[in-house]
Design a protein that fits this description.
The complex is a heterodimer of chains A (106) and B (633).
Chain A lengths: L1 H31 L4 H26 L7 H30 L7
Helix pairs in contact in A: 1-2, 2-3
Chain B lengths: L8 H24 L7 H6 L7 H11 L2 H14 L14 H14 L5 H8 L2 H34 L3 H50 L2 H6 L3 H4 L13 H19 L1 H8 L4 H40 L17 H9 L4 H39 L5 H27 L5 H12 L1 H12 L5 H20 L5 H6 L11 H20 L16 H8 L13 E8 L7 E4 L1 H7 L6 E6 L9 E8 L7 E4 L1 H6 L8 E5 L2
Parallel strand pairs in B: 1-5, 2-4
Antiparallel strand pairs in B: 1-6, 2-5, 3-4, 3-6
Helix pairs in contact in B: 1-8, 1-15, 3-8, 3-12, 3-13, 4-13, 4-15, 5-13, 5-22, 6-7, 7-8, 7-15, 7-16, 7-17, 7-19, 8-13, 8-15, 8-16, 11-18, 11-21, 12-15, 13-14, 15-16, 18-19, 18-21, 19-21
Classes of the chains: A mainly alpha (106), B mainly alpha (633).
Chain lengths: 106, 633
């Protein structure tokens, strides 16, 4: 019974992910088109969120990351902050690339 | 091969002197560290003794190969700063590595991925994985030799037939005699070389352009962006790079690359290993992305500025890049104003890039050769001296195989980038998926592992001739739909392998008789206990104690130390805990250090540490130097 429930949970999670994987990029393409940097940005960090998130979830549920241990708490914060650090860095980069004028057309 | 630059006789001699001198210095430097190899554990893993910063800093040079400069400068020129994509997408993997794979290999004392497969599954799985991993490693060794050969051919018109074997002899020499410690220390030195030479060429380029503002202003907007078009270019697209490179490529590089794995295993603790991983992804990779790609970005800006201003920049030759493969050499040579001594230094950095990557790979292949082939199949019961000798022969054989592969690379067509990824994306999918499933799914069994590796590899190779079978997947994820699926092939292979692995596992009984304790993420607590010899792990954080004066007492067992009660309280340690003792000079990075177990001795002074002379010798301690103690677990 427990195994069946676990399997059902996995199947639901998989179905939700597949729906996300299909519709999310199409939504981005509809908003910005394939050449726009924000399309690639959200593609990367959208799917990347699942990638990192599933790793964090696995670490917590498997007991590999114990919140009662100070060092595990520290590294969990680092892992989550790292994702947002790179996301912020890339967002800032795109902003600067688009906002400073290009002289090559002169 | 179309040459990038033309050098006169004087320039060739000057460049050769600088580069030649560099190779001799580094070979001698590496040879010095042979004295720190007492046994094969020292030779390959440096006795798990180093502080995080030493292997982490040496990874700078390991991660940058000679091909990196050529490949990424070309990519930077063609598509701009999106050339950094492959270096800046590794963080997603962090939780799997930091909380999963690193503690697994560390606490279970895994020496290689094939050994993990044997312990996790069976010997069949071990040898299937061994075949795939060696293919991956040899591919990289051959590719590095090939690219440096091509670069030398382009600059000096020296045929690869002569230049590559000559380089191989020098490389083989210091890896063969120095081992992992030599690799780490030479890579540390070479990492500095790479950064100095890289920043020197970047500075020269920016200066030639008239400053940072000028460089940025003349760089087309498409070239300033950190990402390429989502799915247009089959050879370089954001969607493909995410699935093929950030997912499959990063797992291969972090989980399976024996060179990196061994680098992590030289580190004194899991906590320090995590620090090294953090530093690698947060600092080393972004810096490396700039170092290897910036010349391409500068080259593009330079060419545009020339077009806008109507000719060469004042004081410089006109830059013309007909063959983008030579972007790095052309831009560098022009912006340093054809100064052969400075350019010679940059060429030496190219050598450094080659040497630092290849030495790691050769040492890694030799480790696999000894631990996975020689010991289990040929001679399981020999002395350490014998294995050290065998390890050195394994290094020689590995170098020769890499050398032979250069012949094969010379028959390949296409750009460096395409040759690289076409090969890697076929080799890795099945094995990375199997490692992942093995580490993170306890029920995954040996039958499933062997079946999925073989069938996954065969179907991935089959897709090379029938790319149409990848099209639905690429369409589903909004990837390229133009018939070429270099990166999506990796995802395709991973999914096929995972489906086969899952199905076979569900259809066959899980191997309950097989003890997988410590080999999966869900059994790490038991792994820590086993690592400590059955005692409960102590997770309390204590302080480091420096300035301890060692005294010798040969009645203490080897591998044990005595500390005062107060020292134990400061360390937050209990009797039986594992303590790391090292020479108090931090800058040695743990070169003189050892892991021991601790016992309280109330009568001992707080500034004292007692151990036997055997422990003292194993730690390579020197008289008149104090010791630092730190609790590990």
């Amino acid at each position: 019974m427990v195994a069946k429930t676990a399997l059902l949970k996995w199947l639901v999670a998989l179905a939700l992910f597949l729906a996300f994987a299909f519709f999310f990029p199409r939504m981005l393409l509809q908003i910005w088109g394939p050449a726009h940097p924000w399309t690639s940005y959200f593609y990367l960090y959208g799917f990347g969120f699942f990638y990192t998130g599933s790793g964090v979830l696995l670490a917590l549920t498997s007991g590999a990351c114990h919140l009662s241990r100070p060092r595990d708490r520290f590294w969990l914060k680092v892992v989550v902050s790292g994702y947002f650090y790179f996301a912020t860095l890339h967002a800032l980069w795109i902003y600067l690339a688009l906002s400073i004028p290009y002289k090559g057309d002169m | 091969m179309e040459f990038g630059i033309e050098l006169d006789r004087g320039a060739i001699i000057a460049i050769s002197i600088v580069a030649g001198l560099y190779i001799v210095v580094i070979t001698t430097f590496g040879g010095y560290f042979a004295r720190f190899n007492k046994n094969i554990n020292d030779f390959f893993y440096s006795g798990n003794r180093f502080s995080w910063w030493l292997p982490a800093a040496s990874m700078v040079a390991t991660g940058i190969g000679s091909y990196s400069y050529l490949k990424y400068s070309e990519q930077g020129y063609n598509t701009g700063m999106s050339s950094t994509m492959t270096y800046l997408n590794d963080w997603f993997l962090a939780p799997f590595f930091i909380f999963g794979w690193l503690p697994i290999i560390y606490y279970a004392s895994i020496k290689s991925v094939p050994e993990y497969f044997e312990r996790r599954f069976n010997s069949t799985a071990r040898y299937i994985s061994l075949t795939i991993i060696l293919a991956y490693m040899f591919f990289y060794i051959g590719y590095n030799f090939y690219t440096i050969g091509v670069a030398l051919e382009g600059m000096f018109q020296v045929p690869q037939l002569y230049s590559v074997p000559l380089l191989a002899i020098f490389l083989g020499a210091y890896v063969t005699f120095g081992g992992q410690t030599a690799v780490i220390f030479t890579d540390l030195f070479q990492g500095f070389m790479l950064y100095i030479a890289g920043f020197l060429s970047i500075f020269a380029g920016i200066y030639a352009l008239g400053g940072f503002d000028e460089w940025w202003s003349f760089l087309p907007i498409t070239h300033r962006l950190p990402f390429s078009h989502l799915n247009e270019n089959p050879y370089f697209n954001s969607a493909g790079l995410f699935w093929g490179e950030a997912l499959a490529g990063s797992i291969a590089f972090t989980f399976m690359n024996q060179g990196f794995l061994m680098r992590y295993l030289t580190i004194k603790s899991v906590h320090d290993g995590r620090k090294a991983a953090f530093f690698n992804v947060m600092v080393t990779l972004p810096m490396s992305a700039i170092i290897v790609g910036a010349i391409g970005w500068i080259g593009k800006s330079l060419v545009i500025k020339q077009a806008v201003t109507g000719g060469a920049l004042a004081g410089y030759d006109f830059v013309q890049i007909d063959n983008t493969f030579h972007t790095f050499v052309i831009v560098c040579w022009t912006t340093v104003k054809q100064n052969p001594w400075i350019f010679g230094f940059v060429v030496a950095a190219l050598m450094a890039a080659l040497m630092s990557t290849i030495d790691t790979l050769i040492n890694a292949c030799a480790a696999i050769g000894i631990y996975d082939l020689y010991k289990p199949l040929i001679n399981d019961n020999a002395s350490d001296e014998h294995y050290l000798k065998a390890a050195r022969w394994a290094s020689v054989i590995t170098t020769l195989i890499g050398l032979l592969l250069v012949i094969w690379f010379n028959t390949q067509k296409g750009s460096l980038m395409s040759i690289h990824y076409k090969g890697i994306m076929i080799i890795i999918p099945a094995i990375v998926t199997t490692i992942f499933m093995g580490a993170f799914w306890k029920r995954f069994n040996a039958t499933a592992a062997c079946t999925s590796m073989i069938a996954g590899s065969i179907i991935t190779v089959f897709s090379v001739w029938n790319p149409k079978i990848i099209a639905p997947l690429s369409w589903f994820l909004s990837g390229p739909v133009n018939g070429e699926y270099i990166y999506f092939r990796a995802l395709f292979g991973m999914i096929i392998t995972a489906i086969i692995g899952f199905t076979v596992t569900m259809l066959t009984s899980s191997r309950r008789d097989k003890n997988v304790t410590g080999l999966t993420i869900s059994t790490l607590n038991e792994a820590m206990r086993d690592y400590k010899g059955g005692d409960t792990p102590n997770h309390k954080i204590g302080s480091k104690i420096s300035g301890l004066v060692p005294t010798i007492d040969n009645s203490i067992d080897e591998g044990w130390i005595h500390l005062s009660k107060q020292s134990m309280e400061e360390l937050a340690a209990h009797d039986g805990d594992i303590i790391y003792i090292s020479d108090s000079r931090w800058w040695l990075g743990g070169l003189r250090s050892y892991h021991v177990k601790v016992k309280t001795k109330a009568s001992l002074a707080n500034s004292e540490i007692e151990m036997s002379s055997a422990t003292y010798d194993d730690a390579y301690f020197l008289d008149h130097h104090t010791v630092t103690a730190e609790k590990i677990i």
